[in-house]
Amino acid sequence: MADTSRPHHLPNLRADRQPPHPSWLPRQRRGITPQMIGRYPDFDVLTTAESWDEATRQVVLARLEPPGPLRFFTAAEEPTLRAFCDIVLAQDREPRVPVAEFVDAKLADGQLDGYQYADMPDDRQTWRLVLCGLDEAARERYGKESFAAAEVATQLALVDQFCRARLRGGSWAQLNVSRAWSVCMRMTLSAFYSHPWAWNEIGFGGPAYPRGFMRLGGPSGPAAAREPFETRGALDKDPVELVQEEGA
């Protein structure tokens, strides 16, 4: 395991300004996290499931069930959808949070966010145009059959161009590309962090109803405010303080 007491792993302090592969984090010893790595290797939010009310427990545990087939995206769109979700969330091996399925279910059921940018199409059409646009860009810029068929370096380059709104023409001409990035990332991140495995990765204690919270602060720093069900992270130093100290 890499030394986590220093912030050399942070992107802006690295020569290439890119984050290292997350395998530098400790292996998960309890519960499941994406790729079985995380900052809280001895934490499993599901050990607190009995403290949740029944309705909450059913909703959360349903997210652990094996996902069904896609209902919104077509078989032709599916490979690009999966490749995009994997690359933007750095999920390159199992176990994975089934983000593609969560996004698909939300769109298939019409459970949208309740608002739409004035210069953008419906989120469902936005997703279809984005996937088509990624395939077009992979072919035109890199000579690849599709985004999903491209190597990781090409996928990363295309995602970087997407997030910087540097993709033009074809399907992209029908979108405000910057807003399209926001639409897609809002949905992928929401899906990822709705899953208990992601909660384990970040040490999130899950629903607090009806249990509530016991530790609402304290004079001795974050450790004093730890709830009884929480565990220590891979290092005790507050990461925000660590970065501030290095910056100074």
Molecular structure report:
This protein is an all-alpha fold and 248 residues long. Helix content is 38%, strand content 0%. The protein contains eight helices and no strands. InterPro entries: Gluconate_2DH_su3. Residues 1-30, 220-248 are annotated as: Disordered. Residues 227-240 have a biased composition (Basic and acidic residues). This is Gluconate 2-dehydrogenase subunit 3 family protein.
Unreliable segments of 5+ consecutive residues: none
Task: Tally the beta strands.
Answer: 0
Order of helices and strands: HHHHHHHH
- Largest sheet at a glance? none
Q: What's the multimeric state?
A: single chain
Rounded mean pLDDT is 86
The count of helical stretches stands at: 8
From the spread of the alpha carbons, the general shape counts as globular
| Helical residue percent band | 25-40%
Tag the structure with descriptive keywords.
248 residues; mainly alpha; Gluconate 2-dehydrogenase subunit 3 family protein; oxidoreductase; oxidoreductase activity; EC 1.-.-.-
Give a brief description.
With 248 residues, this protein is mainly alpha-helical. It contains eight helices and no strands.
